[in-house]
Fold Rod shape-determining protein MreD.
Amino acid sequence: MTTSIRSQYLMLIPALILALVLQTIALPPLLSAMRPSWVALILGYWAYRSNGVGLLLPSAAAGLCLDVMFNTALGTHVVALTVVVYATLKLRGFLYLSPLWQTTLIQAPIWLLYSFILFWADGATLHAAAPLARWLPVISTTVLWPLMFLILQLLRPVTRPR
């Protein structure tokens, strides 16, 4: 394992654990419906900032954790988070060239796709999902993206070129 990948995991794993904790904290019903998709937000950032090496295993592990915690069909969150990572990796070139407000607008359809996959899987498995509980997180995740981006930029270890 190279040094850059190792340093990436040193920040990614604790960030994912924190995101999983934030995803499960009990909130009042209205705030719970507006809860951002913390894990997708963290994985989206890391797919944007890293070269994508080694992101599928942590995204699959986090997705399985979410599936178990929320009692959804196994693999639902795995697929949705993998789509987030893949789409962000494919759009990295545009994201790097864009200012933060445009990056937010570029990421918004990715959060929408994440929620749509979860909504579709709920429908396919005959689980009733409140529409507001599926679509309000898209708005809150999009609004939270610039703040999380700046915070994670400050926490990201600086790598010096050789």
Notes: The two ends are 18 Å apart (CA to CA). The chain has one domain: 3-155. The chain has a mean pLDDT of 87.
